[in-house]
Design a protein that fits this description.
alpha+beta; 5-stranded mixed beta sheet; 4-stranded antiparallel beta sheet; 10 helices; globular
Length: about 350
């Protein structure tokens, strides 16, 4: 699994390293966030799940940080501009309220305690006054690789980065920007990162939880004017459980009362739940594995230090341009398939 410094691999391993891997002083590997699994168990998070060659997790981590940092910092400049503009509007609103009160002979013009919340429009991570600390608001709205947590996984060939739970980062937009840069030649094809799944939400793999998350994400997808879709809506479902042992997914016997909360360890059962959730939002939707307009990805996360029988799923609803349907439905690869096979 990923270790914390390139020097820890020893001099023998360094002989086979590429120049990229020798530059650990340029991009330092972050420490694992060991609180992340419990946080994922309690709250939904956005993030990125990245596939890479086995035993190259360290190189892929450095590369992923370098790539993501570029696009997160680009969002940061836009985020600060929006935040500053919103702060100006809030301040103007306060002055107007104060002036109205003064004209009405009421000079008690206290500031509204929820100004930061109003500017950032956050509904989680709030303090008692209903507002989010300004530093947290700026980090969530703007973002950089420093806001990402590296989560330890039990499976090889996988990396997981998560944002704080109150983040509203549009991970699918970041992946789209990466592909645009690759196509234009402004970004060199990565050497170690094969695929990036932009995680839009996480949840425990229970029927009610998964159905609620999928319905919400599908509704958001349809409300986005950038996504062109005809009728009927064509959709597909992709389900993966890389690095997940069946025994880890087995839960204790549940009562009839809790039967609707049994873990969805069966692939077909998961497909059925997701399909019903999509049809709850779009009644005339149909399954199309060849040219779906949207794909619902459900990826089980092989989290370390997670209690047995409590699998966590990453969920995303992605447009057709980010998806490959052959040889199977997956997120498009960042590099050619021939390079992927050679490194594996």
């Amino acid at each position: 699994m990923v270790e914390e410094s390139a020097a820890s691999e020893g001099p023998e391993a360094n002989q086979d390293l590429t120049p990229w891997e020798h530059h650990s002083a340029v991009i330092r590997l972050p420490r694992f966030d060991y609180k992340a699994p419990s946080s994922l168990l309690e709250n939904s998070h956005a993030g990125f799940l990245i596939t890479c060659p086995i035993r190259r997790e360290k190189s892929a981590t450095k590369e992923a940080i370098s790539i993501l940092d570029k696009y997160l910092r680009s969002l940061a400049s836009d985020g600060f501009e929006k935040l500053e503009s919103s702060d100006v509007n809030v301040a103007a609103k306060k002055r107007k309220i104060c002036l109205e009160k003064i004209e009405g002979e009421d000079t008690n013009c206290s500031e509204e305690s929820n100004s930061v919340s109003e500017a950032g429009n956050f509904d989680e991570g709030e303090n008692k006054s209903g507002s989010v600390p300004l530093e947290e608001t700026q980090n969530a709205a703007c973002g950089s690789s420093a806001t990402l947590s590296l989560v330890k996984l039990t499976g090889s060939g996988l990396l997981l980065f998560t944002f704080p739970r109150y983040s509203r980062t549009q991970t699918a937009d970041i992946l789209s920007d990466i592909f645009n840069s690759l196509n234009s030649g402004s970004l060199r094809p990565p050497q170690w990162c094969h695929r990036i799944l932009p995680i839009q939400a996480t949840c425990s793999l229970k029927e009610d939880n998964l159905r609620e998350i999928v319905s919400k994400l599908v509704q958001q997808f349809l409300e986005d004017d950038r996504h062109k879709h005809g009728k009927p809506i064509k959709f597909a479902v992709a389900y993966n459980k890389r690095g997940i042992d069946e025994t880890r997914m087995n839960t204790k016997k549940t009562s009839e009362k809790d039967s609707n909360q049994v873990t969805l360890s069966n692939r077909n059962q998961c497909f059925s739940v997701v399909a019903r959730a999509v049809k709850d939002v779009v009644e005339d939707s149909v399954v199309d594995l060849e040219s779906p307009q949207l794909v619902v990805f459900v990826e089980l996360l092989p989290l370390s230090r997670l209690p047995q029988g409590t699998p966590i799923a990453a969920v995303s609803v992605l447009p057709q341009n980010l998806v490959a349907t052959k040889p199977r439905i997956s997120v498009k690869s960042l590099i050619s398939d021939s390079k992927t096979k050679k490194q594996s």
